[in-house]
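Box 3.1 A note on notation
Throughout this textbook, protein chains are presented in two layers. The first layer is the amino acid sequence; the second is a token string describing backbone geometry. Keep the layers aligned when reading.
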Amino acid sequence: MRSAQDLAERVRALDGRGYKAYGAVGGSWAFEDFTLHVDHVQGDPFAAPTRVRVVVPPEVARLPEASYGSRVRALGTAAFLARALGGAAREAPRVRGSGRSGEIDVETPGQEVLAQTAVQVDGAGVVEARFGVGLPAGGRRILGREGARLLTVTVPHLVRTALLASAHDPAEILRHAEVNEDAEHLRASLAAEGLIAFVADGASLPRRSGVDDRPLEGEGVVLFNSPESLRVTLEAPNAGTLTGMGVPAGVTLVVGGGFHGKSTLLRALEAGVYNHRPGDGRERVVADADTVKVRAEDGRAVTRVDISCFIDGLPFGQDTHAFTTPNASGSTSQAATIVEALESGARTLLIDEDTSATNFMIRDRRMQALVPKEGEPITPFVDRVRELHRALGVSTVLVLGGSGDYLDVADTVVAMRRYEPHDVTDAAGDVASAHPTGRTPEAGPPLRLPEARVVDTRCLDARRGRRDVHVKVPDLRTLLFGRGTVDLGAVEQVVSRSQINAIGRALALAPGLPFPPGRSQPAGGPELHARSESPGGSALSGGGSRTVAALLDAVEALLEERGLDALDDRRPGDLSAFRRHELAAALNRLRSLRIV
């Protein structure tokens, strides 16, 4: 294998040549303590940076064996190293040049700990990091000295200050591995305790701002302290005995005045489907893995969703058993999102009245008198929420500040007062008895799970121009997929651009994936099994059909077997794990979606 010295000499020899001559640096180069793989060389200084991989052998990385002894521990360690690499890249001196010269692009994890491709640690302790480097140019001419310095000085500096155990406190590395293992264990313990979520005593829930997910700091921060009546004890493999508030299955209301922490608690539960880094404040806040946040979403597309259990009898005979619209209202969008969540396997729904359609949530006594049921197509959620749990086993947590009608259907009521939780379930029952609403329940036919929808997989066409797979993520709310645009701004459990990128890649592959074992082929068309061999993994070939659930199952099976690299054979560093529910949300928001 060529050496680091060979690389330096070759790049310096390119000085002054046209930018495309940088192609000579492609391939693998042996450094003293790691191997550098240049997988793709950018063709222009203004293009996406050159993709490189650094592989550090275990005898050099020297990570504590306990930090990668299991998959969940290795994920915690990898996330720690990825943040360290991102920090080192931001502090590295920028070489001069035009375009993206000298840029070092590391996909740095946020507060969540997810499987990701920026830094990976395998079961033998090998560390692999993937990032972009902007090869330096003056105009469109190579700056050879700066290029050699970037690749043979700056990159080794990043490796030695971020990816080796010697650069960190070994106890800190272990802490990230152990905290991640504890969170996974706590979440797995919920069902046996009859819980859908757990918020540990001492957790710090408030965030710095709506765009900064780091914990709020200062003397005014109130740490979480469970009401005694809801306090449970769980065991974690490393932290030992933990106490905190257990949120039981059923219907739970979170009530209280404005600015007292209701939505903050709900957002912590929403984020609890993911593990969090030590120091986040929510590292011991966990929710059932199949918890889905639901909200109204005016203007979204809905494709053949059976919302008839919530909305039926629309004017002009519009069919709500296969409801379709390019521009949903607040109530129809919220109904569709709930049904879609059930279709993807949600077991808990989270709802905040602030982001809900009022007419979908409640119809009070006066409105029932003014507008009789025969003139109102909506069955309000208050008349379905208990049935969701009793008939389908789906729990709900609702944040409420203005509608007391839900007191009649609640199993548990938590009041937030100055960010402190209080169990007011008994008091809520007394209030409901003393102040009856007088409204008439309006539930219609029994609630049922939605029938399987079958996707015409030709609609999952990711091609654009000469590209077999066109997937771009310009921001945290937008997926560019093929010729279309998917707005994920209302899908609040999407947490990173790398997650959206992975979702887009999965959608492109899904039609060609084999059926997971135990799944029968749906009626409606032949299955697709052919997969394109083109770069990026396009799977579109001919026609076919598959149920939504089968598509989700096929992607999950692929990721379990082969990991995130199965989504893109170019081995990028900007993919991270997602749940089936966010994949389904993106699928359902495709305006090109066709259900047969």
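The chain is about 30% helix and 20% strand. The two ends are 54 Å apart (CA to CA).
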